[in-house]
Structures are given as structure tokens and as C-alpha cells.
Specification:
Blueprint (H helix, E strand, L loop, with lengths): L2 E5 L4 H12 L3 E6 L7 H9 L3 E5 L16 E6 L6 H6 L1 H7 L2 H12 L3 E7 L26 H21 L4 E5 L2 E2 L10 H10 L4 E4 L5 E2 L2 E2 H14 L5 E3 L5 E2 H12 L5 E4 L14 H6 L9 H13 L2
The chain binds nicotinamide-adenine-dinucleotide.
Length: about 325
């Protein structure tokens, strides 16, 4: 039986990845230190699947204990990292370490098995972009010394580490740049915009927009994201790829969609924009649609938001 390791297994994307590979017949080792993830995200995996083995573990620590447990390792998905701005700013140093030291541990462990590590990078490597949509060839407009730099520069370092590691060791580790994925099992308290609006609407609180709401984002439902990850892993390409949805919405449009779907009486309130908040965010998916064909995002925002509302209503 082939196996995979997922770091950040109790997180939003990590828990969906574990589920995907368990259903595909793999033994799955989940690692997480619960710094931003939730035990409830993996309870169903523990109880339903005998091939799921979870370890509460900080990915920056020594991975040796796993050596006599793991066999036939195919992929390591290094997804451990705080991902929402309030949490990565609170855990700034930890964010820098897990995307550097933690990634180095994953790469070295994968090499023992000739396995492939897939690193969760981000559209934040483009910073506040001066072009839109953003193709992978765009080098970004990033502040290295500010509130978001612990995350943006950590991910940029991780990408550089993979490039250099592959060159020196002739390996095929890879990375994906995610653009705002959303769906069930996001931490309701982590402050990311889709879950935040839905939580506020269901609680009949005002929906908080930071800035005037004209900044844009593109939102990719988790099922589309996971399909893209699996395709990338099996493709054995190592170049960076954008994975997201290329339909662009203003934050105000998103708030209005949430108001409509939840039928809430909540109004919108505006608060000051945080520093370095990107004005536009939309992936150029040309490369993904070619190299990961026939992958493309399929689930429209209204359908995805509806699924999330159903999930959070029963949370
Ligand atoms: N969801 C998105 O839209 C998005 C966009 C861009 C990039 N990403 C990246 O994808 C990955 C997963 O994001 P997510 O949305 O699932 O976030 P998440 O916060 O839900 O999950 C991250 C998980 O990593 C765990 N973790 C953090 N530091 C750890 C450490 N040192 N050791 C072990 N576990 C640790 C957390 O406890 C959490 O369970 C992250 O690397 C993130 O930067 C996500």
C-alpha cells in the first residue's frame, strides 16, 4: 500500500487532502500541532478509516520517529502553516520557521524514500500585484519588512529552497500557489473573509469589510482545489503553478452574495484597510489548464458559499 504524509492535517486543506488520499486507497500519516487547526477536522478520519495515522507534532522538529512507521511513501504534502492574516501575524516567527525549517525536514524525509514533496505556496508571493491577472512568471511586489512579510517572505523562501534543493539533489519536489480556497472545515475564528462573512451573517452581526470593499479576490471551492493538487502531484512537474478560480469578485460583491444566500438582515460595516492589503488578486490559469489538463475550477461561488452555509449552520 502506498502512503502519503500530510503536514497541517487538522487544517482546512490538509483535512480534505487526507480524506482524498484515504478514499484513493493510500495509508495517510497526518501531522499537526493544532496551532491553527481543529481536532474536529480529523475526528471523522480517525473513526472511519483504519488507514489514517495521526501524530500531534510540530513539523519543525526531528522527523526520525516516523522512519520505522512509514513505508512506500509517495508524496509529502507540506501544508502546515498558519494561513490567515490575523493568525500568521500572531504566529509570525512560527510561520517563518514552518515554511523554512519545517519544509527542509519534509524535503529531507521525502528524499529518503525518493518521494515527492508538494509545498503549499500562495498568491501572496505576488504581494500587492501591479499586473492582473497574475501569471507564474510575475515576480511580485512584496514588502519584505511589514505586517505580512512573515508569511509572504516565508513562502518565497520555501519556493527558493525547493528550487535549490531540486538543482543540487536532482529531485522533483514541487509547489502550488493557492489563491483563496474556501469551503467546509475552515476555522470559523481564523478571520478569512468567506468564513467570516458567513459566520457574521448566521449570527445576525454586521458583515465587516476592511477598506471600501472595491478590492478584488477570486475564490476557489475546496473540491476544485483538491482536484488541482492531486493532478499536480501525479504530474511530476516541479515548476510553480497557480491553483484557484479566475472569476474575480470585489469584497463587497462577496458580502452581497453571502447576504442573499443566508437571507440575513445583517448590514455591512466598513473598517480601515490593514497595511499592505493587496488591491487585486486573480490567477492567470493558462499554465494550470495546460499542464494539469483536464483540470479547471468548476464550482461557481454561489454554489460553494451555499455548501459552506449548510456546513456552518450545522457546525
Ligand atoms: N486556504 C487557502 O486559501 C490558502 C491559500 C494560499 C496558501 N495556503 C496554504 O495552504 C496551507 C494550508 O492552509 P489552510 O487554509 O488549510 O490553513 P489552516 O490554518 O486551516 O491549516 C494549517 C494547519 O497547519 C497546522 N500547523 C501550523 N504550523 C504547524 C507546525 N509547525 N507543525 C505542524 N502543524 C502546523 C495548523 O495547526 C493547521 O492545522 C498553508 O500552508 C497555507 O499557507 C492556503
Amino acid at each position: 500500500m502506498n502512503s502519503v504524509i500530510v503536514t497541517g492535517a487538522a487544517g482546512f486543506l490538509g483535512s480534505h487532502l487526507c480524506e482524498y488520499y484515504l478514499n484513493a486507497g493510500y495509508k495517510v500519516f497526518g501531522l499537526d500541532n493544532f496551532s491553527t487547526g481543529l481536532k474536529s477536522n480529523i475526528t471523522h478520519l480517525n473513526s472511519l478509516k483504519k488507514d489514517f495515522e495521526f501524530h500531534e507534532f510540530d513539523a519543525c522538529q526531528d522527523w526520525t520517529f516516523l522512519k520505522n512507521k512509514v513505508q512506500n511513501l509517495k508524496y509529502i504534502f507540506h501544508f502546515a502553516s498558519p494561513a490567515s492574516p490575523p493568525l500568521y501575524q500572531r504566529l509570525a516567527i512560527e510561520t517563518l520557521w514552518v515554511n523554512s525549517i519545517g519544509l527542509e525536514q519534509a524535503l529531507k524525509f521525502a528524499d529518503l524514500y525518493k518521494a515527492r514533496t508538494i509545498f503549499a505556496s500562495t498568491s501572496e508571493v505576488y504581494g500587492d500585484p501591479s499586473i492582473s491577472p497574475q501569471p507564474e512568471s510575475y515576480w511580485g511586489n512584496v514588502n519584505s519588512f511589514g505586517e505580512r512579510s512573515c508569511y509572504d517572505e516565508a513562502k518565497r523562501f520555501g519556493e527558493a529552497l525547493i528550487f535549490s534543493h531540486n538543482k543540487r539533489h536532482n529531485t522533483q519536489h514541487g509547489l502550488i500557489r493557492f489563491f483563496n480556497s474556501y469551503g467546509p472545515r475552515m476555522n470559523p475564528d481564523d478571520g478569512r473573509v468567506v468564513i467570516n462573512f458567513i459566520k457574521q451573517a448566521l449570527a445576525k452581526d454586521s458583515l465587516t469589510i476592511y477598506g471600501d470593499g472595491t478590492q478584488t479576490r477570486s475564490f476557489c471551492f475546496v473540491d476544485d482545489t483538491i482536484a488541482g493538487i492531486a493532478k499536480y502531484a501525479e504530474s511530476y512537474i516541479s515548476v510553480p503553478i497557480n491553483v484557484g478560480n479566475d472569476k474575480e469578485f470585489t469584497i463587497k460583491e462577496l458580502a452581497e452574495i453571502v447576504q442573499k444566500i443566508t437571507k440575513t438582515s445583517s448590514l455591512i460595516k466598513f473598517e480601515p484597510l490593514p497595511s499592505d492589503d493587496p488591491k487585486r488578486r486573480r490567477p492567470d490559469l493558462t499554465k494550470a489548464k495546460t499542464l494539469l489538463a483536464p483540470w479547471e475550477p468548476k464550482i461557481p461561488l454561489e454554489i460553494g458559499v451555499r455548501k459552506m452555509v449548510d456546513w456552518l449552520s450545522n457546525y
